[in-house]
Amino acid sequence: MLSKKHRFALLVALATLGAPLAAQAQRKSPLADAPAIRKRFELRSARFELGAGAGTTINQDFYHTVTFNFKGSLHIVDWLSIGGFFGIGVAQVATGFEDRLVTSLATDPAMKGNVNREPLQDSAKAGLQQIPWVAAVQAEFTPFTGKYSLFGKLFAAYDFYAFVGPGFINVKPAGTVRSCDSAAPTDATNPDRYVCGISGVKIGPTFGVGVHSFFGQSVALGVELRDLMAQLNPSGRDVNGDLVADKNDVSWTHTYMIMGNLLVYLPFTAKISP
After folding, report:
1. What CATH number did the domain enclosing 86 receive?
2. Which region, left, alpha or beta, applies to residue 152 given φ > 0 means left and ψ of -120 to 50 means alpha?
3. CA spacing 20 to 30 A to 255: which of 60, 103, 129, 204?
4. Which residues contact 258 (CB under 8 A, 6 or more apart)?
């Protein structure tokens, strides 16, 4: 009899406690389906990005190319855009390695001795690669956004993005030299046999990362680190060791660039999320 009374009391207690919990579970939270951030400025969504700036190659052995850049993007949504850039080479800055390499070579055939594989100074320098312009079409993905402050006084929005797409690099030799597509001299003592030049537009993949720092809603500073791959021979020399410089010496080569651009967004006012 006592056991039945205890069981009945336990059921009553469970029912008393469970009824409010069941009612609360059935009630929908007012934050359900709500955005993570309300009244958020969508600084990229449905906006055009136009800008200009400067950049430079950072891994070239012989000439660093300084560029003047134009950049544009259409931001389809806040995290995805389609864009492109065009960089004109405005200066070719010789590296210290270029000077050491060229000055180590002979200036006259009589000074070469039996080292037939080495070109003369003038022809070696003429075959070194320079970059008149670079360009790319790219898809940009923006997974990270946020805000930062400087000294607790200045506040700005930022984002990190990654991009990938086809790249185009126009190259030329530094001087007048035999084309790598032409037949090389058969005479092993001819120094022109061991140097050639590559010219024209080469196509390959480009990819990298970038960051925007926004000043208000319509202006931003963008910085990009880019890798552009193409089949090149920057030295114009015999690379594969077959004792002749020709088209067989090209290989996939990385051209790293860092660029900074001042950007304007259109329309000037960003949308605000619900």
Report:
1. 2.40.160.20
2. left
3. 103
4. 55, 56, 58, 223, 224, 225, 226
Residue 157 is inside which H or E element, if any? strand 154-173
Can you give the pTM of this predicted structure? 0.81
Residue 153 included in any domain: yes
Q: Which domain, by its residues, includes 105? A: 43-272
pLDDT at site 2: 47
Residue 59: Cβ-neighbour burial (10 angstroms; 0-12, 13-18, 19+): exposed
35 SS3 class: coil
Distance linking the first and last C-alpha atoms of the chain: 63
Please give the average per-residue pLDDT across 82-107, as a whole number: 90
Residue 28 lies in a domain: no
Per-residue pLDDT tens digits for 221-262: 999 999 999 999 999 998 988 889 999 999 999 999 999 999
